[in-house]
Specification:
Blueprint (H helix, E strand, L loop, with lengths): L2 H5 L3 H14 L20 H15 L4 H12 L31 H14 L6 H14 L33 H9 L5 H8 L6 E3 L5 H4 L16 H8 L10 E3 L11 H7 L6 H4 L5 H11 L3 H15 L21
Antiparallel strand pairs: 1-2
Helix pairs in contact: 2-14, 3-5, 3-6, 4-6, 8-13, 8-14, 11-13
Length: 333
Amino acid sequence: MSTLINMAFSAPFVLCSLLVTLVALSSPAEAQLQLGFYAKTCPKAEEIVQKEMSEILSIAPSLAGPILRMHFHDCFVRGCDGSVLIDSTKNNTAEKDATPNKTLRGFHALERIKKKLEEACPRTVSCADLLAIAARDAVVMSKGPGWPVWLGRRDGRVSIANETKQLPPPTANFTTLTKMFGAKGLDIKDLVVLSGGHTIGTSHCQSFSNRLYNFTGKVNLNDVDPIMDRQYISRLRTRCSLTDNTTLVEMDPGSYKTFDTSYYKHVAKGRGLFHSDASLLANGFTKDYVLRQANGFGTEFFQDFADSMIKMGNVEVLTGNQGEIRKKCYAIN
């Protein structure tokens, strides 16, 4: 593993992550994931991904957030099987063309990395594993934590747009969020921790503009989300109209390219961009976590984020002879 990634693994991060993973890997499929899965078949797999990610993010640093988001969207629909990467066909509308995924970016970057992996080790490294590694590297290269990526996922052969209803929407309240996370074996701590991934990246206005103009359907300047900071509303209105679906806004204003705890500071002040962010203040446990991170417990968040990413990365994975290893991530073999 590369020096850059190793530097991100302080001993507490690795030990904590390994313990969580050993507990999490309880089903037969998940138990087949392992560290060093490609040690013999493609020993430089993670090094290749890291090198390409470093070059990609040096040119387009704003892709770190989208690649992390893509891994999240992949794991919540049919598990972490790379199905979000598959193109639609004339007979099927795939996940990537569903409404929640139309704003995803970074597909070409992943195809570039996949091409390098295929040149080095044909038909060996899955697109699902590639995405899991790339998401980790995106966080590390944004000054966030590293974690060991357990590998051995296989690629799914099915991608259906309608199944993206399993993705937690930005408009969700706390009850909806806990149900949707719970359906994937993730608890409320994972919810508040993984929401911290909003510290990097941007969002289109359409994902939150109802909070600014049309929260209860009245469509007027007073119909706002009452738990959103009024000054923040005024600021966002200078960027977004109710019908704007193209403008991008930083999810963590001021440090959207740096992985840190400032996201929680914004949420604590009523300045979380999405209603789902604000919903973290509706529960005692998640509110306490937000406030603790807002007051400078960054080391705790980094450890927790590493653990929750490992846990999410094991959701409903395909292993062994299940699925396939795609030659191109956008098409089933």
